[in-house]
Amino acid sequence: MRRAVIPGVAAAVVLMSGCSEDVPGCGWEDRPKSFPIEGEKRPVRIRPSERHPGLGGREATAALPPRPDRDAGPTAQALYDLQHRTLDMVGELGEIEPGRCEGGELALEVGDTTRCTVTYEGVEVPWQVKITNAVPQGLGTPFAIDYQYTARPLRTVVLAQEVYDWFAWEAGKNGPDSLSAPEEPRCDRLPKIFTAEPGRDTGHYCQSLSFSCTDGDFDFEWSDVAVRIDEEGQVRVDGGS
Question: What are phi and psi of 195, to 5 degrees?
Fold first, then answer.
């Protein structure tokens, strides 16, 4: 007896025996017309897409006013940059406004951190800004200082459509005939907009249909994939860490 195990994210036949040929009668095309499926079926059907989600850098830049010049000071420049980073992180144009930094200004000693916020579609997005270097410019006094910094999102804004678009791309990025594409991709019905903590699962799921087969006898189940936010605030629905 030969057995094939075909996960929903890898529809190519994988033989437990290690042989390279397909198991007869156990291909996706051999499945019965109707069959019971173990597990909960998520409500939102996802249409696979070959379009990569997200914004291009020029789209985000065009949506913002001109960047403040040096005279505006490092706090105004940082808040502008955080607006740009927030748009990149969310992946969708929306109403965005600069917020403020705690204390009204960035703490500018090397190693200092400051909590700053911007607002996207009325939702506050907090960032931690850390000064990593201060480089004097020019000769004599007074002289200008260029400040270098890193910015880490403390929470991110997630759009339901952003999640659906990412899972659609996972399902369709290799084309309609790809053996690695998830079968029957679906997701939870998500809030239109919500916040989440970077580096954590959101508590929401997408899924695909997976099956095992023994000599033409199929077993089907819904295989869930957690909707996760990585450390940079980006949506992940590929099952990776």
Answer: -105, 155
